[in-house]
Each structure stands twice: as C-alpha cells, then as structure tokens.
Amino acid sequence: MSIQSPQSFSLYIHLPWCLHKCAYCDFNSHASTTENLPEQQYLQALLHDLQLACEPLKDRQVRSIFIGGGTPSLFSAEAIHQLLTACHTYTHLADNCEITLETNPGTFEISKFKQFLSAGINRLSIGVQSFNDKYLQALGRIHDAQNALNAIQTASAIGFCNINIDLMFGLPNQTLKDAINEVQLAVQQPVQHISYYQLTLEPNTVFHRYPPPLPNSDTQSEMQFAAQTILHDAGFSRYEVSAYAQRDAHCRHNMAYWQYHDYLGIGAGAHSKITLNGSITRQQRTRQPESYMHAVSTHTHIVKQSHISPVEQLFEFMLNNLRLTQGFERQQLHNLTQIDWHEIEPMLVQLMDEGLMEYHQSHYRASSLGYRFLDHITERFLPN
C-alpha cells in the first residue's frame, strides 16, 4: 500500500544558541554570548538547506513555521526577516500560516520584538517555566519573575495576539501551594495558550547527574489536577497531554506532529518526516552547529535517512495521536500511513473492552482512565 503525498507540510527551523544552558535541558542547545553568535554564517547555511530541502516539496503548502532552539530571539530581527523572506521565496506559505518564535523573557527587547512582529512572526512561545524567583534560580534560568510578566504584557501591548507560555510543575522543593499560585497567576495574563508540563530528569543533563529534591508523585498528581481545574475554569481547554488553549488558539505546528502530518526540519540536529513517492522517510541533520554549517556547503548535512515501515508507522501514529484528547479518525490513519485497518482493529476493540480507549463522535481516543496510562496503551502497538 502506498500513501498519497500530502498537500501541505510544516516547517521547523532550529537556532541552537542560548545565553545559558539550563540544568534540566536536553535540547540541542549551546551557550553563547550575542557577540560570539555566528549569525550570518549560520543564516546562510539555513537558507541553503531550505532551498535544497524544499525543491521536492515546492508544490505543497506550508501550514506552519516554528523557529525553535536554543533561544531564537538572540538572533537579530533582520536575520529573522531574511529567514522568513527565504521561506516565502522557496516555499508556498498558506495565507493563514502560523509562524512561531520561541523566546526567553531574559532576552526581551521591545524594539526588537516590534520588528519580529513586522517581519511576520504572529505567535510567540515564551519560556516562562515559573513565576517564582526561587524556582527559576533552581532551574538555572537567566530571567526573574518580573522579567516574565513584563515580557508577556509588553508582547501583548505591541500587538502579539497569539501568545503561549511554558510553565513547569514538580520543580525542586516546590510546594502544592506554590504550584497553584503559579497557574492562578498564569491565567491572569494576556495569553491564549499554556503549555503545562512536569519537570523530568532527562539523561545528559546536570539534573540527571545531580538529581534535585523533587515533590513526591502524589504531590505532583495533586499539582496537575489542581492546575487542570484552574485552567478549565479560566477558559483553557486541554487538547493534548500538556497543552491548554483558549478557543481557536491550538498550536497548529504541534498539532502537525501529533496528527502525524509531514514536517521538514532544517538547522543543526533537526529531524524531518516527509512522505514522498508513496512512502514515509525520516531524516536527521548534523547535530553540532559548526559541523552543520560546513556540511551544508558540501551537501552532506543529512546524516541519517530511513524509510518507516508500516509497523513502525503504527506505533508512531498511536504515540502521537493518542496524546490528543480528541484522538483520531479511521480515515486519518488510512490517509497518512500504510497500515491495514483490519490488522489493528482487534487491538482497538481489546483496548476498548479494557476501558482504556473509547469511540466518540467518529474518533478513537484514550478514555479518562487510559489518558492516565498512555505509555501502557502505546506500548501495545510497539513492533514485535
């Protein structure tokens, strides 16, 4: 069974530098001063990468762009303008294309952010993480609570009307009361989307080597339940495990990942999932920024490339779509994968019999019970 190439894709652009590497961070990010940032050299590599990668995709529409990092707001507004101009040149952007820029409150400059808005950025994702200075210091963040509040309120005042904030819970020595206060303060801000997620100790991080004292699992569950109630009462609907949005403010770019749509990733270490010639291909680019910049010039920047088999597609599809509260439709799985529905239907029926999944308004989704045990459900779809 072959797959018809989709009519659109999403674009991820990785800018890997930040001012300080946080103790919990396992992203491909590298500390640098603004003076030592190889902005133009890296930008030229990105533009070359984009031109090469988009050639076979030129007939498809770009539905969303996400500029992530690192701290992309370290780059100048002119660099972001050049980058988005190239996106218009080498791709066909949808009229309502969502264009997100990640930013750190510690790098917020009003004049620069006005220029980001003028350049075409229409969604900001602000890495707040906490509104409490004690916890920000424990995480190793470069900003304080007032910086975060100022960044949000200023971004809204200068015209950004689609703002996300990242907020974490289960922080070192965090109390339930403090966690509740954080969410109560968050919903009072002029934001339309809140990513609320638990601190995890990822391998190859300072916190993994030197674990800080974290709240116990019962307290963390209480934090999450209390937050869900506050967010719901404030008009933020939970549509994914860690994502809450006001009406029509779902992150379109992340929805592309969760719904198993195609995405192209450019920049150091970026990943792609592209459907071409009836099959799905994954790619990974050179991880180290300096190596990436050199490799693009010799067209050797794609270091891993492989086709995804139908059994792998099944696991990936379920891993992503079951994170969504709405789940997925049968036709969606048919359109985006090479999976035979009749081969997986018995497993879905079994999971529904066990009360872990349900069929609701033409969608298969995790039940309330199953949503608490998503890892258990998705493991059932792992290739043998």
Q: In words, what does this structure look like?
A:
- This protein has 384 residues and is of the alpha/beta class.
- It folds into 2 domains: 8-256, TIM Barrel (Alpha-Beta Barrel), CATH 3.20.20.70; 310-384, Arc Repressor Mutant, subunit A (Orthogonal Bundle), CATH 1.10.10.
- The chain contains 14 helices and 16 strands.
- The chain has helices at residues 39-54, 77-90, 110-119, 133-139, 145-157, 176-186, 206-209, 217-233, 252-258, 289-297, 310-321, 330-336, 341-353, 374-379, and strands spanning 8-15, 17-18, 30-31, 61-69, 92-103, 123-129, 163-169, 193-198, 237-240, 243-245, 263-266, 271-276, 279-285, 302-307, 357-360, 363-366.
- The strands form 4 sheets. A 9-stranded mixed β-sheet has the order 9-10-8-7-6-5-4-1-11, sandwiched between helices. A 3-stranded antiparallel β-sheet has the order 12-13-14.
- Strand 12 (271-276) and strand 13 form a beta hairpin.
- Helix 1 (39-54) runs parallel beside helix 2, helix 2 (77-90) packs parallel to helix 3 (110-119) and helix 6 packs parallel to helix 8.
- It is globular, with a radius of gyration of 21 Å.
- The two termini are 21 Å apart.
